[in-house]
Amino acid sequence: MRSTLRIRLTLWYLGVLATVIVAFSAGFYALLSKNFRTNLDSGLRSAAEVTALALNHETEEHLGKLEGEESVRLVLNTMHQTSFPRPDIAVWYGGTLVAEKPGLAGLPAAVVASRIRGIQYPGGYNYSTLEERGTRYRLVVANIWVPSSKAQYLVVANESMTPLESEMGAVGEILLGTVPVCLILAAVGGYFLARKSLTPVLAMAQKADHITSRDLDERIPVEQHHDEFGLLADSFNRVLDRLQDTFRQQRQFMADASHELRTPMSVALTATQVSLEGRPHSREELIETLEVVQSQMLRLRRIVEDMFMLAQADSGVFGTTVTTFYLDEIVQESIRAGRVLGAARGVEVRVGESLPEAEFTGDEGLLRQLLLILVDNAVKYTPSGELVEVWLSSTSTGYRLRVADSGTGVAPADQPYIFDRFYRADKGRSRRQSAAGGGAGLGLAIARWITQLHGGSVWLEHSDSRGSVFCVDLPVEKSPVVAEGAKVAESGGLAGSRS
Ligand SMILES: Nc1ncnc2c1ncn2[C@@H]1O[C@H](COP(=O)(O)OP(=O)(O)OP(=O)(O)O)[C@@H](O)[C@H]1O
Ligand SMILES: [Mg+2]
Q1: Which of 26, 141, 150, 467 is deepest in the core (most CB within 10 A)?
Q2: What's the CA-to-centroid distance between 83 and ligand 2, angstroms?
Q3: Each residue's pLDDT expressed in tens, for the chain with a length of 499 residues
C-alpha cells in the first residue's frame, strides 16, 4: 500500500518528465532540421540568383545572345568555383545546356536534366528533393526571363543533403542516447525523493498504531509545523487532544457516578443489616430503618433519573415537546413550589416584581425543571429567615430570568465549576442534605443543558457572602429546540464534567 503510493508518485513524476523531455527533444530536432534545410535552400537560391544576374548582365553587355551565353560560361567557371564550390549550377535554354559549373557535392547537369525533363516550372524559385543512388539532393530550379536576348532560361542548382542528414543523424543519436539515461536517472531520483518525502507519514502511521485508549497522552512528533505533513500531524494531535479530553471526562463521570451511587446504597444496606442483626427491634426502630432506606432510595432514584436525562442529552435522543406557553405562569408555579420547600427551612420565596406577560415557545416541562433547579438551590443554600426572589423581564432578544438569594454564596474558587457534573462546592453539607433526597451535583449541569437546548445561556451573575444571583437568558428566535427538536450540536456544555 505504502510502496504503491511511492511507485505511483514516481511513475507520475516520470510520466510528466518523459512527456516534457520527449516533446522538447522532438521540437529541438524538428527546429534544427528545418534550420539546416533553410540554410541549404538559401545557399542554393543565392547561387541561382547570382547566376541569373550574371545571365542578365552578360547578355545585355555583349549585345548578343550567343556572346552573352559564352560570357556566362566564363563567369560561372570563375566566380562560382570560388563562391559556391559545393553546388552544381547549370543554365539551360530549352533542352540545350548553355553553361555548367560542376560542384563538389552536386549532381552533374546531365543527370539532373534526365530527372526534370518535361516538368513545367512556374516563374520564380522552385525547390524539390531528388534521390540518386541512395543519396538525396536538394534542387532549386529558377525560370528566368532575360529581356535583352528575349529568351527564357532555366537556372538549376543542386547540392547533396548528405552533410545535413549526417549532422541531423548525429543530433538524433545524441538525443536517443541521453533522453533514456536522463529518464532512468530521474526515475531513480524520483523514487528516492518520494520515499524520503513519505518517511514522516510512515513514522506517523507507526506512532498512531501504538496509541490506544490507555496512552492517549502520546502525540505524533512534528518536525516541521509549516509543511503539509506537519499540518497533518498537528491536526491528528488535536484530534487526540479532544479524544483524551472526552475519555478523561468519561472516566471522571464514571468515577463520580459510581461514588454517588455507592453512598446511598451503603447507607441503606447498613441500616437494613443493623436491623436484621442482634437484638429484636421495636416497631419504631424498624420504621426508622425503613425511613432511612426510603430516603436513600429516593436519592438513588433522583440521581439515576438525572444521569439518564444527561445521557439522553449527550446522545441527542431526548424527546422534547414543543408548545407555546407563558413563562410568567411557570415562574408563578416555581415560586409556589419554592414556598413549599422554603416553608420547611424557614426561607421566604417571592416574586421580585410584577411579572410581565411572556409568551414563549419551547419545552414547557424542561423550562419548569430549569426554574425548579435554580429555586431549589436558592432555598437549599439559604439560611433560615432569609429571602429568595425570582425575577422575569423582557430583553431585546427574549426574556431574562433571575433567581436571587441572600444565602451563603459560592466561593470564588468554586464558581467556575458549579455547572460541571457532580460538582458540589460544599460536599459535606450536600451529603448531609442528601439524606433528605438531595442530588449529586447534577442540577446546574441539567440547567445548562436545558438553556442551551433553547438557544439560551445560564450563568452565575454574582455571588458573595451576602447571596447569589443566577441568570438565564432565553431568546425567542432561533431556539434550537424549536428548530431541530432535541438534537443539540456537540458542545462543551453538554459533555462538560468536573475538571
Ligand atoms: N444558590 C446557591 N447558593 C450557594 N451555592 C450554590 C447555589 N446554587 C448552587 N450552588 C453550589 O453549586 C453546586 C452545584 O449545584 P447543583 O445544583 O448542580 O448541585 P446540587 O444542588 O449540589 O445537587 P442537585 O442539584 O443534583 O440536587 C452546589 O453543590 C452548591 O455548592
Ligand atoms: Mg441543585
Answers
A1: 141
A2: 115
A3: 456 888 888 899 999 999 999 999 999 999 999 999 999 999 999 999 988 888 888 877 776 777 778 888 888 877 666 778 889 999 998 888 888 888 888 999 989 988 888 888 888 899 999 999 999 999 999 988 888 778 888 999 999 999 999 999 999 999 999 999 999 999 999 989 888 888 888 888 888 888 887 788 888 888 777 888 888 888 989 998 998 888 888 888 888 888 888 988 999 999 898 888 877 778 888 899 999 999 999 989 988 999 899 888 888 888 888 999 999 999 999 999 999 999 988 999 999 888 889 999 999 999 999 999 999 999 999 999 999 999 999 999 999 999 999 998 999 999 999 999 888 886 554 544 544 445 688 999 999 999 999 999 999 999 999 999 999 999 988 666 665 554 443 444 344 443 3
Q: Looking at residue 277, what DSSP letter applies?
A: S
2-168 topology per CATH:
Beta-Lactamase (3.30.450)
**What's the 377 CA to ligand 1 centre distance in angstroms?**
5
CA nearest ligand 1 atom 22, residue: 441
DSSP codes, 316-341: T-----EEEEEHHHHHHHHHHHHHHH
CATH number assigned to the domain with residue range 317-495, chosen from the 4 options 3.30.565.10, 3.40.50.2300, 3.40.50.720, 3.40.50.1100: 3.30.565.10
Give the other-Cβ count within 10 Å of 174's Cβ: 12
Q: Ligand 1: which of 374, 418, 451 to mutate, most ligand atoms within 8 Å of CB?
A: 418
Residue 221 CA to residue 391 CA, distance in Å, equals: 54
Which triple of cell numbers denotes residue 234? 498537528
Q: Which ligand is nearest to the CA of 460?
A: 1
- Residue spans of the domains in the chain: they are 2-168, 317-495
Query: Which residues have C-beta atoms less than 6 Å from ligand 1?
Result: 373, 377-378, 381, 405, 407-410, 418, 423-426, 430, 438-445, 468
Name the one residue in this structure whose C-alpha cell is 512528533: 221
If one residue of 406, 424, 460, 463 were mutated to test the ligand 1 pocket, choosing by the most ligand atoms within 8 A of its CB, it would be 424
